Amino acid sequence: MSKTVSILGSTGSIGTQSLEVCEKHDFRVNALAAHSSVDLLEQQVRQFKPDYACIYNENKFGELKERLSDTSVKVLCGMEGLCEIASLEETDIVLNSVVGMVGLLPTLTAIKAGKDVALANKETLVAGGKLVTELAKEKGVKIYPIDSEHSAIFQCLQGNKREQLSKIILTASGGPFFRKSYDELRNVTKADALKHPNWDMGNKITIDSATLMNKGLEFIEAKWLFDLAPEQIEIVVHRQSVVHSAVEYNDYSVIAQMGVPDMKIPIQYALLYPDRFECPTKRLSLTDYGTLTFEKPDYDTFKCLSAAIEAITRGGSYPCLVNSANEEAVRAFLNDEIPFIQIGEIVSSVLEEFEYFEITCYEDVMKADSMARAYVRNTISEVK
User: Fold this and answer.
1) What is the CA radius of gyration of the chain?
2) How far apart are CA 8 and CA 18, in angstroms?
3) Rounded Cα distance, 301 and 311, in Å
């Protein structure tokens, strides 16, 4: 049972819940990394006593080092620090829950070091799916999904023959704007978009859920995680977030994984696989819910979802381009620079703005990332 875990993104929603799971099962946490939350990271270091602590924001390095000067922890910073933590010899599994493209290089570094990865960073597979999966295969490394939907699929595949899989069914909550028309979305506020009906997440992921980009990113992730063609992935809106996803086999049997909407369940499964033990969450009572509903998504209104699916269908640089464009557009929305509906318009426009090129190395990913971000910033400034 004893495992040593390094957690990237320890102060975020996934990170803090991961620490609850580690505490429950007496895992050794030997490294913690956060973006800029010095207060919470210091608390976590004092509670879990890791050997390493990293703050990604280099401007916060001095403050963190001073605060932890009475401890023996080695304090690191920046991308170099993240990658050092991702490749520690004594680590059994690296849990990557950072937000954004920053998560890709630490994931590749962990895999190169032969470390299994519990992955909650969507951008790793969206932007660099081919690089990551090919390297993991070469190194004999396992990637355990933490997204509730991908964890559900992973669980539904256990004990069955992979070649008998027909398709997967990704469930989506529909976000706070379920059944809203495109015109109705013109005047929604940031506060409206940050009110997710079922999940407690960080701002960026919550906005992605409101635009349904989150589901588009998961669509792309699923293609790489489970080696699927885009036509083998179906998205279904399921408001209650009880059925986390399902798998259809070639005899038309459908196997679903269910549970209360609590990320500690998939986190624990990734860290404990293949074992199952009591989880620090509630039990599911189907009678408390009474009714579970399923509907088709509105691809016309939620343009981000359509753009993500089109991007992975085209392949090459397009998934990275739409992902980076989305990151920039969401940042602009959260900073009150653009209205909500412009996120989808910007992300969609990237598909026509850039030509296809292959992603063969990390530098290719960074090239696509830089191109998309510059395009979005220019577009926003022109609108202003």
Assistant:
1) 20
2) 10
3) 17
